[in-house]
Amino acid sequence: MIGVKSDLFQRFYNFVTPSNEYQKRRIIVNNVILYAVVSLGAISIAAAVILYFIAQKFKVVEDPRIDVVNEILPGANCGGCGFAGCRSLAEAIVKAGTLEGFNCPAGGSDVMNKIGEALGLQAEESIPMIAVVRCNGSRTNAVAKVQYDGPSSCAFAHSLYAGESGCPNGCLGLGDCVTACTFDAIRIDEETGLPVVSDEKCVACGACVKACPRHIIELRHKGKKDKRIFVSCVNTEKGAPAKKNCAVACIGCGKCVKVCPFDAITLTNNLAYIDYEKCKLCRKCVSECPTGAILELNFPPQKPKETAPVESATV
User: Fold this and answer.
1) Could you tell me the residue range of the domain that residue 74 belongs to?
2) What is the CATH number of the domain that holds 82?
């Protein structure tokens, strides 16, 4: 019995006590692992050093003035300046080294002057602009002949038909311009069905101009004391068809062209257009237009023309 126990103890001892051959194999494995770790560590360090020098060689150092200009800009990212956002405009200004040709519609002259002071540049005097809706085809002036029943999208409706009044150029009144405006400067008038632009909120970013599929919204000079005169029609059809669909359509008669003393009105493709840079706001064209297609905003009422009394004939 004692011999059996001794034999079992010897076997257990041999099992738990590694042999010389096992110890050699374990040392070899440990060395392989150690060499692998050291090799990978050395490769990683070498790669990091190489990447560091490559990054230093090809790094782009950003001009700190870009951050200065970007902080001055309003951050609206409206795209009215012609760039993707305020950061892009700041980069372009710093790169150009001049403010000539650059403008921030959302910030106006005040922002550009601040940028000029920060960069030591002379800011150009910008003329305030505003979005103008060149359509007066209200529910009264352009009576609906059909009823639209579809998605509330001007772009979608424009691709389907001419419009409820039949005017192929008139406002569809579904509010794509309202959706595009990030300044809450446009609303659809419930009575007329036409967009109304707020003089106080509009920054002339041009988002509504791009959104309108009929191209009836235009950026024009805001005018002194917000006074503006423009042809509120973009229909290029001849007089009869245009007048059939809208009572206040431009019929291309040319009377406004003849009466303008400043050569500010042109007639092209049956449509009159007033050049806001030449217009002196004399208002002669407004009273001359037979259909009322020329609108005047923020003016006092015109005095009625005085007519000479007709003398009765004596016998």
Assistant:
1) 64-119
2) 1.10.15
